[in-house]
Here is the input.
Amino acid sequence: MQELHDAPLAPLTTFRLGGPATRLITATTDAEVIDAVREADAHGTPLLVIGGGSNLVIGDKGFDGTALRIATRGFELSGTTLELAAGEVWTDAVARTVEAGLAGVECLSGIPGSAGATPIQNVGAYGQEVSSTITEVVAYDRRAGCTVTLANEECVFSYRHSRFKADPERYVVLRVRFGLEDADGLSAPVKYAETARVLGVEAGDRVPLATARETVLKLRAGKGMVLDPEDHDTWSAGSFFTNPILTNADFAVFRTRVRERLGDGVEPPAYPAGQGHTKTSAAWLIDKAGFTKGYGTGPARISTKHTLALTNRGSATTEDLLALAREVVAGVREAFGITLVNEPVTVGVSL
Here is the structure.
């Protein structure tokens, strides 16, 4: 277990932003993770858990406490059952499931970060969410002081949310287990309209796993959503805001505001989101509120490839990023009466 003091955290995040931690521990086994957590809790030391750093916005002052970087490794495949250590690189693990001919997470290719973060956010993209394949999550329960195994239904998954996100100080994810599908080398049924269109198939069709993965990677790369150190459009946390879910009554009010602002013939995106609710597009809201691709003149700007990504152009501070985020939130609220919610976790700062 490696220990550093006054350690930079910015290089551990995809934003490349944030000040140092008083102490940084890198744990490579589950036992080391648990020991570090127990020590911090015993001394009342603030604890920040870091995986792939793709969903973190750390303040410029850094973190006054112990930052725990989980660097555990483990990829165990038995039939269609997969167990990943929390520190496994997610997109590499997805690639290996595709190579093994197993379906269920192929459309989550290219998503940065670690496997342990996927149940926290209920990571999803292009018609798939991890909640549909996760069977169990093994975690250290800080409140009970022991390791627990939570079944899928105990994780209380919803859109970009879970039991772990709702109670962030309680659980530290150690391992994630998935139930995948052997469909003779074919993908799960394609659900996302854009993916189906690019593949030239109908929704519900299956395609070769490798084809599905390659298509998603190309779509993500075209939006700056595949990490590339030379491309500042990828110096981001991916989607910075979640797609708003409105009651049908609130959606009707929103729809009226859209027509008043943009014209009678304009219809906002609308997707079913459970009984009595409709989901709309945060990217559409941002664009129609006037924050187009590349918006901004400072070191933090909207991506030139996707309006949903806020980016560090190389010399930004966290305050630069937050100023842009607040401007976008205020502009969308003024235009459409909807308050956007940030997807990344903020540390020492808030919108």
Summary: The longest strand covers residues 171-179. The chain has a mean pLDDT of 97. Residues 318-336 form the longest helix (19 residues). The chain is about 25% helix and 25% strand.
